Batch of 2 targets.
Target 1
Amino acid sequence: MNKKRIVIALGGNALGNTLPEQMAAVKITAKAIVDLIEEGHQVIVAHGNGPQVGMINNAMAALSREDSAQPNTPLSVCVAMSQAYIGYDLQNALREELWNRGIKDIPVSTMVTQVRVDADDPAFLNPSKPIGKFLTKEEADTVASKYGHVMREDAGRGYRRFVASPKPKEIVEIGAIRSLVESGEVVIACGGGGIPVTLQGNHLKGASAVIDKDFASCLLAKELDADYLIILTAVEKVAINFGKENQEWLSDLKVEQARQYAEEGQFAPGSMLPKVQAAIDFASSKEGRTALITLLEKAKDGIAGKTGTLIHK
C-alpha cells in the first residue's frame, strides 16, 4: 500500500457531549486513527467542537451573570478554550494508543489554530448558526441590548444567539503546523474550524463566528498537500434520495457527479451538504487528491477501497 498523507476531520460523535463522554470517546477515536498510522500513513487531525464550545459559552455566560465584574467572554476565546481541552484529551489518547502498540517515536501535539476570515464575508450579514442555551423573549432582549448579539427564535423552544459561519481564507499557524508534520509528528489542528479572526492592520481580531470544520479541514489538507481528506460522519456512505424508498448508497463519485447531486439538493444543508462540498473542493483542487466520507471505525477500510464514499476527479 502506498503511504499517504491524510487529514482526518472528526465529527462531534467522535468526541462525545460531556467531559466524561469525551474521555471515553477519544479512546475509540484514537484506535481508529492509530490503525492508519500503524500502516505507515501520516495523519493530521482536525475536529468539530459543537457541543464543547456550547458548554464553554454557557459556562462563561453564567459566570458573567453571577459576577458583574466578569465581562462577557468572546466566542473566539470560547473556541480557543475548546481547542485546548479537546486537544489535550485527543493527544493523550493518541499517545497512549501509540505506546500501547510499541510506537514510541511519534510525538503528538495540538496547535491552537487561528483561521482568518474576511470581515466583509456576506455570512456576517445573515448569522445562521445557533449557539448557547434557549432563552425567553425577555432574556433574549436583555442579552441583545447588553452585548449586541443577534437573538432569534429557534425550533419553537425559545430564543438563541445566532452567529455567522464565514468561509475560511487562511490558516494563520500553517507554517508551524507544516514544520511539525514534516518532522514526523501527529498534529491536531484547526479544532472547531479554527479560532475565527479578521485581519486589521497587523492585528488579528477575534470574530463572533463559527467556521465549518469541514471547510477548514479542506483548506488544511490543501495547504499540507495531503493525498486524502477523510471526513468522518454518522453514516458509512453518502446517499441520494436519503430516507426515501429509492435511497441509493454511493461508493464512488466523480467530482462532476457529486457537484450535480449537490446542486439538485440531494444533501441536507447543515449536515451532509458541507461535507460533500468540502470533499468536492479538495478532490478537484489537484490531480491525485481523494476525499473519503465514512464512519470513524471504517476509515481504514475506506482508504483500502472497501467502503465509504470516495470522491475524486
Target 2
Amino acid sequence: MTKRAVIDRFEGSFVIVELEGRKMVAIPVEIVPEGAKEGDVLVISIDAQETQKRKERIKDLFESLKEEGEE
C-alpha cells in the first residue's frame, strides 16, 4: 500500500505535509529528499525487501549474543 503527502510548507527544521483527508503533519526536513519544494508530492511506502533484511540481521545479532552468553 502506498500513501501520498503533499508538501505544504517548510517551517524551520520541519516540513508540513498534507495527508489524504486534509490532515496536516510535521516531519523532520532530514527525511525529505533534497530539492523537494512546496507542492511536491511525496510517496510513502513499505520496502518489504529491506524490512526482511533488517529482521534477519537483528535475528542473527540476537543469536550471536545468546551464544556469547552461553559460554
